[in-house]
Amino acid sequence: MSAKKPSTSATWTDPDDAPELNESFFQHADLLDGEKLVRRGRPKAVVTKEPVKIRLDADVLAALRASGDGWQTRINDTLRASLQLAGRLKA
């Protein structure tokens, strides 16, 4: 009969083996303002966009993509203008 071996505990690490606190350590450390963690990078936008899946004709999509970077933003602007003209969206 074979019995399972008891799981072994994690090996103890000597606190004297802690990494050196050099410039690299502090460059990657979390920045705190009191108790609050200061986030790095781009701040969250006040108005966010929602990802959606939309089916477009291949020729329409090809023409939009061929117009260069920012084509999704231009689609959004075009839809917004269309809805404003129809009176379904406030200016």
Architecture overview:
- The chain contains three helices and two strands.
- By secondary structure, the chain is mainly α.
- 0% of the residues are buried.
Computed over alpha carbons, the radius of gyration is: 27 Å
Q: Report the average pLDDT across residues.
A: 86
The largest sheet, given as strand count, sense and whether it forms a barrel, is: 2 strands, antiparallel
How many beta-strand segments? 2
Proportion in β-strands: 5-15%
User: How would you describe the shape?
Assistant: elongated
Query: Strands of the biggest beta sheet: in what spatial order?
Result: 1-2
Q: Could you list the spans in which at least 5 consecutive residues all have pLDDT below 50?
A: none
Roughly how many Å apart are the termini?
78 Å
Helical content (DSSP H or I, runs of 4+): 25-40%
Class inferred from helices and paired strands:
mainly alpha
Helix count from the secondary structure assignment: 3
Helix-strand string = HEEHH
